[in-house]
Amino acid sequence: MGMLTNYIKIAYRVLSKNKLFTVLNVIGLALGMSLSLLFIALLSFLHRYDDFHPHKNQIYRVTTQLYDKQENPRYASAPVGLAQKLKDFTGVEKVVRIHNLLYGDAVYGEKKIPLNGYFADPEFFEVFNFPFLRGNKATALINPNTIVLSETEAKTIFGSKEPMGEIVNLDGYGSFVITGIFKDLPENSHLQFGAIASYNTLLSHKKATFLDNKTGWQSFNGSYIYFRLFENAEPAHLERFLNQIAKQRYAKQDIKAAFTLQRLDKIVPGPELYDQIGPNWGYLGLFLIGSMTLIVLIPACSNYINLSISQSLERMKEIGMRKVMGGQKKQIILQFIVESTTIVLAALVLSFLLYEVIRKDFLTQMVETSRLDLSPNMVTFLGFFLFAVLVGVAAGIMPALYFSKITPIVALKGKELKTSGRSYFRKIVLTVQFMLSLGFIMAVVIMLRQYQYSVNYDLGFEQQGVLDVELQNINPQLFKSEYGKLPAVQRVSMSSHILGINAADERYLKTANQLDSIAASSMAVDEAFIANLQLVLLAGKNFSDNKLENARLILVNEEFVKILNLKEPFAALGKPIVFKDGSKFRIAGVLKNFHYSGLKEAIQPFFFEYNPDKFNYANLRLTAGNAIGGLTAMEKLWKKIGGEGTFTAQLFSDEIKDAYSFYNMIMKLWGFLGLLAITVACLGLLGMVSFTTKRRVKEISIRKVMGATAESLLLLLSKDFVILMVIASVITIPVIYFLFDYLLVSIQHYSIHIGFTEIFVSLFIMLFLGLATILSQTWRAANANPADNLRTE
Hints:
The protein is of the alpha+beta class. Helices cover about 50% and strands about 20% of the residues.
């Protein structure tokens, strides 16, 4: 212990003496470690997934390995008929069937609330530990059309009213009786739901063939089987039992399958599976996140190694004296490791402050995909400390080995140990850092251009000055009549979807010349919609005030005309259209192509129909003037005409921008990684240039005395670093260009073409930062007074 204390004291003195070296490394390592701390906190949270179930080591899920002679996918789901087979096995205590078909709007009186959950057997709340607040968990899900709600969902639907025994309606399944209220789920549950309905409800709608028919053993998406084993039961025996069933079931099938058991605590994190239920934290995704942290951490550690070895001349006599006084090789190695660990622990404090900032932003970005709690606890803090010690040892081992090789005579002469590999290592590290920096800069610039391109793209209709309002349960005709009287409203139209954003309904049609069904997207609109959004009518007429006539008409786009093998829009007018469901229409008009579902997909056949039963949104064309005052009047009118929920409205133009907000998320992520990478690179470059100029200070002074100009000295000191930046640019630019040229098209059909502007801006930013860092040190050295540096000679 006394020896370690002595090492720490020496480390403190050395680091205090070399303040620039210490500050550069503390900041660089802190930046490099910040993302790693986030990753450690994420791993700590994922390790706690589903740990609140008392019998977690006895709860398993059946997964299915499919052999289809192509991808051979592994599913988290399993055939529902397997559940009965499990009940026949003596080691199984309880079996639970779960299906994820429970979703849609729950209607209670005038309220219409989105509800998501599962159908499950009565044993669900006995196998899993989700405490009940009201009702009997053993009997709540026995009868068909019974449902239990979370406390939050119950409060949203019923407010302060007693929910037990109340009835809600769900689309497709009819009325449900509330038979229980359970406590809100913890964040570390892989099962995420707001309601559980009885499995018997599903069976009553799907009939008995749902349980054990041929297609059920081949198509089992959305069907999950969990069970709890008795304490001494052997899972391997059960797995063999299940695979005997698989051999029998799939013996005469084109596809083959095998079943495996997945313990509850191995689901998150776990292998990548198709048809997951709940959050999907697979090993591959975690590996990619971990790799992103290394992109910044490894250059930071490399900087430390570079700067430590660059200090060799300043440390030579110290090392020589140690060896003359009997210092052993292992003691010198340990001294340098203690120094590096001390710096890393100091960096850990600063890194934790950065972690607290980025943790909140990370949670904001992840809110739609998973519920996370990255607040540090004792396990997380221990992980942070052990990680810092590991980084300290890893960063210090190379300088330690470098200095331990030096002989006492060479060290006391103050000469640098020449190693051919060290120069190459330094150049490779700096080049890679410049490549990462330029790569991230280009990624951000390209995504920024893609975002601007998307939000400013001409979608084929007018989006400015339109306010979209969710109708909820308000009668569309009443809404249109009352809101049309407001001074702030110029015109009101109705639609089933938000044009250019929401995925439209898909319908299948048949034509006289084509027997096969042809897919076409559709939306329901009223007679004012076309004029309200200023869509261009190429031929025919719009819907009229005659509702009966409108119900038999459709308006189609140019692509729709093409699938009818017609050359002119006028040729489509009056053509009869028969859909697969038997409904018949005539084409009343042809519209110029427009982007009905955004820019991600190419424009396909599309049509508008007139169907007031499908209206979900009102589109208000606003007059120029007091928008704030107009919104206030709209909110008051909402309550007056019977609006139960909150008045929900958003400008159409803002909705279009929000539809492409994922580009902002990507820019923030890559921008942050780029900022870290650039900062670490510049810190490393600053240190390298500083120590290089310090080592060559007498050479520079002699050259200046011999008549060298400041400009020639600047070129001499800077050219090696500039060459590295040029090499990095030559490698990075084509790689990023071809990568994003492919990536942008795969993300969005209508994308930018990467050109000179994106490359030039990115290159300028990197060169500016790099040259500014280099010149900050070389300018001072080139303009220093030679007499000050040659006095000692």
